[in-house]
Specification:
The complex is a heterodimer. Chain A is α/β, with parallel strands linked by helices. Chain A contains 22 helices and 9 strands. In chain B, strands 1-2 form a two-stranded antiparallel ribbon. The chains are: A alpha/beta, B mainly alpha. Chains A and B meet through helix 4, helix 13 and helix 21 of A and helix 12 of B.
Chain lengths: 417, 296
């Protein structure tokens, strides 16, 4: 009798639980979305502020934010994916995107009209966020570009109207101008600093007419006259003392050198507008058009949010990402992070520095389309560290530019076989 | 017969049972991954692809990989200098601070020991602020006093000297404590007898201190050698292995190949070679210095 009573009690308990769960489902099951994030500045706070209204309207959704240093980010994400435990949502760069693209859950599976969604974003962003099957795998959150920020006070002190001279200047004209600027400013030591990354170096490479890959992207083609010319020019400005060796040879932070007033210009990403807006108080700075070699060019880039094949809470993750990528939220996020919006319909009024963003947008407009295709190539991303090392070997005088490009092509070919 | 069995249990099985948790943890987290690493070294494998058996191809490629051999020679240079200088410096500190005869001795011990409590990333960032070419404190002071800056981290040779110096600064305190314990374990009667016999300080050091400290010195040597072969964080933060390949060690190359170039199989082959090198170094050290000491 006791046994029967016990079984009955268990049955009642189980059926009650099942019924209760069903009721909960109808009202919105509690979900905690795991979000993997990295910061350039304080984007995590701005992300949370931006989607605060969504979270208020959906109290059953909670976020478990995991902030990881960018230097460790790719490794962490790859290990999570390969371990079968990807986050529900992750912030990713174009570089990371090329590495994890096949692990991303296509947005196509979660919206009715994917073409209408794609049409909302800048074409270069859509190109980055598309996999080889043409599926759209990540929501673009911000567009980035490489450009030049200069110490305007230093140019003024040298009696140079930088707005005028930078309208259509060449690198050889820049060289003579910047020598005057350094000479007129005793505290200033160098004319330019370039971030210690192949991405930023590629800005110069594209301007000199170079490229990484052949036309159909089936193999490396770093060995080309434009790339060799860019490397030689880069060595020349290092040897001439126009560029500090401490960045590419000693890993010193170029933004710190610029903020300390030691260099007249900095070739970096558009996110530096935000950084300098906060940190630079001792002098006036601004964005100017980069000098021309063979052509004018920047390098497009961007940040995205995406979910993964195997993410545990895909449905809620996609609802959150869709909301975050809509016009109002994208405008708010772009304005507060001082970034270029990724949507074609976004109208952002920045509290300051609108002219600087305009310069970066102008750079993007003249950038050849193939640059985006090169930087979304998965195999190229595996060789970029080696490319950086080979350029440093040239700067050190250990090998020639010709040897460096040959070495890179040889190494890169192993990934394209 | 019954007592004999019980004795065996107490003498053999019981100690093994106590060791079992450690053996399990060691097996699970060290032995199994090591075997897995060995298996992976015979495969071509990216993080998102299925491993493919390729025999000894990774090791054949490794033999011709100039960057690997450059990092190999850097590792040997770094280890030889770091280990030998750490031993000399830590022993000197221990000899100065083990007798409790200097005023404030415990404070000095703490001061020398504190750097070893810091994470190597913190140490690296701090020393980059000190040694940086343009923004570094030392070069700032040199320039302020009319001199020119020294390329601590942008000249290949000086960068290697810098990371060796910082490694010694960061780790010597830890080994000093081990050596102090070793020195304090040497019976004082031996020194008293040597004094009565009229032995000089040098003779006492070479005839009593060094021989009786041999096993402690061996521990320090083995631990610091293993640590030097695995030095990653400090170098990544201070120089990123540069300029060029000047300070890049095998572990940096393993990381790059595994996680940036996505060649887990090839990186595993490098790790196996690194493990063999460490094993050879450790065996040689045991061979030359690992004799039993005798206090009698």
């Amino acid at each position: 009798m006791k046994k029967i009573l016990g079984i009955l009690l268990i049955l009642v308990l189980v059926s009650t639980t099942v019924f209760a769960a069903g009721t909960k489902e109808e009202t919105g099951k509690d979900v905690t979305l795991s979000v993997l994030w990295f910061n350039d500045a304080n984007e995590d706070e701005i992300f949370l502020n931006t989607i605060d209204d969504y979270l208020q309207a959906n109290p059953h959704v909670k976020l478990d934010m995991q902030i990881v240093a960018y230097s460790e980010y790719d490794q962490k994400l790859k290990l999570m994916i390969s371990g079968g435990n990807p986050p529900d949502v992750a912030r990713i760069t174009t570089n990371t995107l090329s590495v994890v693209v096949d692990s991303l859950e296509p947005i196509d599976n979660h919206v009715a009209d994917i073409e209408a969604v794609k049409a909302q974003f800048l074409p270069s962003m859509v190109a980055f966020a598309s996999n080889t099957k043409g599926e759209f795998v990540a929501y673009p959150t911000e567009a980035t570009a490489n450009g030049m920020l200069i110490n305007k006070s230093a140019f003024d002190k040298a009696g140079i109207d930088v707005d005028e001279v930078s309208k259509d200047w060449t690198w050889s004209e820049w060289e003579s101008i910047v020598k005057q600027v350094v000479a007129a400013n005793p505290e200033m030591k160098y004319g330019l600093t370039v971030d210690f990354t192949p991405h930023r170096f590629s800005t110069l490479m594209y301007q000199f007419g170079g490229h990484f890959l052949n036309k159909d992207q089936s193999n490396m083609e770093f060995n080309n006259p434009g790339t060799i010319a860019a490397i030689k020019w880069f060595k020349h400005v290092h040897d001439a003392g126009l560029v500090p060796k401490s960045v590419w040879l000693g890993s010193e932070n170029p933004a710190e050198l610029f903020q300390a007033g030691l260099v007249a210009g900095h070739i970096g990403g558009s996110w530096n507008i935000n950084t300098y807006n906060k940190n630079v108080t001792d002098f006036e700075w601004k964005a100017v058009r980069m000098p021309k070699a063979e052509i004018n060019s920047s390098v497009p880039g961007g940040k995205f949010i995406a979910s993964f094949k195997g993410s545990k809470n895909q449905e809620e993750a996609f609802k959150l990402m869709e909301a975050f990528a809509d016009k109002a939220h994208n405008e708010m996020y772009s304005r507060d992070t001082f970034n270029i919006p990724s949507r074609v319909d976004a109208q952002v009024t920045y509290p300051s520095n609108s002219d600087d963003f305009e310069v970066f947008l102008e750079e993007l407009k003249v950038t050849p389309a193939f640059t985006a295709n090169e930087w979304k190539n998965t195999n190229l991303s595996k060789v970029t560290t080696y490319i950086r090392e080979q350029i440093v070997e040239v700067l050190l005088g250990n090998i020639s530019a010709e040897e460096a490009v040959t070495n890179v092509d040889k190494k890169g070919a192993t990934y394209f076989k | 017969m019954k007592q004999h069995t019980k004795g065996n249990f107490h003498q053999t099985a019981a100690p093994l049972l106590f060791l079992l948790p450690n053996i399990l943890i060691f097996g699970l987290f060290i032995i199994v991954p090591a075997i897995q690493g060995l298996r992976m070294s015979f495969t071509e494998w990216g993080v998102f692809t299925t491993p493919r058996f390729i025999g000894f191809a990774n090791f054949v490629e490794l033999a011709q990989d100039t960057v690997f051999w450059k990092t190999f020679s850097n590792t040997i240079v770094y280890s030889l200098f770091t280990v030998s200088l750490i031993m000399v410096y830590a022993l000197a500190l221990a000899l100065l601070l083990y007798k409790n005869t200097i005023k404030g001795e415990k404070i000095f011990r703490s001061l020398f020991y504190i750097p070893s409590l810091l994470s190597m990333i913190t140490v690296g960032i701090a020393w980059r602020f000190i040694l940086g070419d343009e923004m570094g404190i030392i070069n700032y002071l040199l320039r302020q006093s009319g001199g020119s800056g020294i390329p601590w981290l942008t000249d290949g040779n000086l960068a290697m000297v810098s990371i060796i110096g910082v490694s010694i600064w960061a780790q010597a305190g830890y080994y000093m404590i081990i050596l102090i314990a070793g020195l304090q374990a040497i019976p004082l009667e031996l020194y008293e007898a040597a004094t009565i016999d009229g032995a000089s300080t040098t003779k006492t050091f070479t005839a009593i201190t060094l021989p009786l400290l041999r096993s402690t010195l061996l521990v320090v040597m083995v631990l610091s050698t293993i640590a030097s072969f695995k030095a990653y964080e400090l170098i990544s933060v201070m120089t990123k292995g540069g300029p060029g390949y000047a300070t890049k060690l095998i572990v940096q190359q393993v990381y790059q190949v595994a996680f940036l170039e996505d060649r887990m199989g090839y990186a595993s082959a490098m790790s196996i070679v690194l493990m063999l090198i460490i094993s050879i170094f450790t065996l040689v050290q045991f061979k030359f210095t690992g004799k039993e000491q005798d206090y009698e």
